[in-house]
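Q: Here's a chain of 125 amino acids. Please give me its 3D structure as tokens.
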Amino acid sequence: MADADDVRRLALALPHVVEIDSEGFDFRVVDKGFVWSYPERRPGGPRAIRTDIAVLYVGDEAEKQALLLGEPELFFTTPAYDGSPLVMLRLAQVGVDRLAELVTDAWRMRAPDSVESDLDGATPR
């Protein structure tokens, strides 16, 4: 099963990715976030950064709903993400190959066309 180190390795293998300094992980392609640690809200306190949960950009509401309904053991959401093309992924429940696919898809959704062609030959595994 996957963990934060796998997210880091897979994300940094993609072109034009930078990691933003954070308590967990936070990756951007050309200043657009595509995968980061879940900042869990705690009533009356500061957010807790959960490195066992990844927030992934998925592109649109239809894809979000398909993931949430099709694989509820892997994906979930919170009211804070209503209306946003984001899902949370339980890393301990996903294999590394599937994580690679999800991270790459999130990257593709956020990368501008001008850099997407750089992905050829750089797909992480």
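Q: Can you summarize the key feature?
A: Residues 11 and 103 are 7 Å apart (CA to CA).
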